[in-house]
Amino acid sequence: MTPTRYAVYFTPAPGPLADFGASWLGWDSATGRACPHPEIDLPVAEITATPRKYGLHATMKPPFRLAPGQTEAALADAFGAFCASRAPVTLDALEIAALGRFLALRPVGDTGALDALAAATVRAFDTFRAPLTEANLARRRGKGLSPAHEANLRAWGYPYVMDAFRFHITLTGPLPPETLEAVQSALALHLAPLLPRPFVIDALSLMAEDAEGRFHLIHRHSFTA
Question: How far is the C-alpha of 167 from the C-alpha of 30, rounded, in Å?
Answer without folding.
Answer: 21
